[in-house]
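Sample 1 of the test manifest.
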Amino acid sequence: MKKITLHTKLAALLIGIALIPLAVTTYVIHAKFKRTLEAQAIAFGHQLGATAAAQITSFVRSELDVLDYVGLLYHPQISSGTGITGAVLESVLFKSQNFVDISVTDKNGRQLTRKNRLLTVMPQDLRSITDSVPFLAVRQQGIYLGPAYNREGKPFFDLGRKIVDLDGDFAGGVFAQVDAKVMPLLLGEVSKIAGPGGRVYIVNDKGLIVAHPDLSYMLAERDLSNLPLIRNIARNSSEAMTAEIYINEMGHEVLGSVHPMTIELFGDSRELTRINWFVVTEQPVETVFREAERVKWSVLLIALIVAIVAGATAYFLAERLTAEDNALRGENAHIASD
Amino acid sequence: MNNETSVSQPAAAPEAAPVSHMKLIWSLAAAVILLGLAGALYYFKGGMVPAADTDPKTVGIIYFRQQLRAVEGFKAQLGELGYSNITFKDVEITLNPNFMDDIKRETEKMLDEKVDLIFASFEHHAKTAVDVTKARNDSTPIVFMTRFHDPVEYGIVSSYKFPGGNATGVATDLIEIVGKTLSFLKEIDPSIQKIGVFGEGFMIPGVGVRFYEEVKKQAPKLGLAIVEYKTSVPPPQVEAAWRETAAKIKEGDIDALFHIAGHFFEAHDGMPGQETAEYELAKRLKIPHTAPLEDLPGGGHFSYSNDDFFAGKQAGVMAHKIFTGTKPADIPVEFGAQNDLTLHLKRAREDGIVFPNSMLFIAKTKIEE
């Protein structure tokens, strides 16, 4: 077996002394940097979730405010007659880009008027909605916020608001069908902040899409409960602010974070109307760790340069340190041969 | 005794040739510089914006003149999405008694030319494209728009939610705005009772028939009676028959004119198309005239319908999804944008038609010129 020369041993030792601390330090710093980036991305995801939740809540509240004003028009002790109020109601319907249908009922749930963007509603078309879920909710809680639903390519959700008389007693309700196409627009804007490949969407506690920047997801009523992060929501909806890395339904590796969204609206009975939705923010892992990757490759490059320089230096140093030893060995060998 | 002792001096360390050392040093320096350059390139490359999609694509577009806005919207959307290398093969189909044959022939031609996608801007084009691709066992994706028919009932897709097959698109339904349009006529003049319609023989079967059925269904709800003008002459003589019929209509015979989309004759040789001719009749009779938005440039005082441009943009987004790997079967059919009121104030002013404040207030578009 060929013996390793002293020169080679010294060169290897010097290279090792130069590179091992560098490698260890680099590994530790890179790992810490990745953890920092991940923590920042999770915090950013929660911020985006909070932004999306605030936008949706603000939108719902503004629509409810409009219904409050409509309620004033039909206030039993203020109303100036259905002729004028009917025209005003139609104006409200058309000036809002989101309402599709608005109706007003008395305290027994009988429709007093109804305006629709498509239908011509005649007096004989008015009906009673006494036993409907929205009317019962408005009578009991003062507010109704229904789930999103689709009808032949059109996404909607329903809202309801109470009308009270001067004594504060229930006098009827105002109900609206709202075009939910505004949801993709709102979420699309927030998703842009998440960067290329990022998205922000809302699921309910069963993992079904409630709102998504891509309208197709809403129309197809996509079930994303098979994604690990959303499966956790479905299993334990009280678990808040979770985050993890997973492959989403499009096959992209993402860092997802969940922000619980509870629209709290004070109703007539001073109770909260809650709706358990969850804002999910997904950021591509590639984007999240891009800086860490770039740093990693930069450091590897530096390490390579250091290795070359260290190797060359070690070679020369080893050569100088072993020169005399080599000469002695050479002479010894010469004497021995004589 | 002269003992000569010879002591060998340790051999001097062999000195490397200086030239060889310099070569090594220069080689190392060059390697370091090259590596540094490569690193800098990698680092800055990471911050570069990826180039826009420039994959060449060919899209066949088949449409009626009335859907030109949809075609513009479709192209505009693809442009906004960054497609800069699409070849559009536009084919306009003229409404004539044999238009279905024309659509079939042009669709087959597009498929022979191996287009990447077909944009069919009307249900007839879409149904034909679906049937032709099925017969040829061709999976070329189809993005469509409908105007007068439900895409499920019409057999283009199996459901809104899960279209199935190779087609998906945007449904815009003129039928649903008929009642509201009639109520706007009543708002203009509550005393209106008789609505004139150029019906049987003056509209192309399969296009305007369902629309007209809805007019007949909704009118009585508002206390309106339909005065239908018919003809039994074959298509080549329809234009002459229309002019003859129109010439006989006197002031007071009808209170308003409702244009049924899907009419027979187009403008030619300085002669106006049917919607313009109807408008000139309404002008002579001093009565309000309504037409769908796509016909409003030709004639009419107001329109209540959605803008095809935005539906075209929706279709453009669907095409983008298909280009990026989603199957048409997985893209639910969407409904078009909200319907809005458009008032042609200039014509109304000239013709003595007064829009009530309620309509002026809610109108989204007011045409002054």
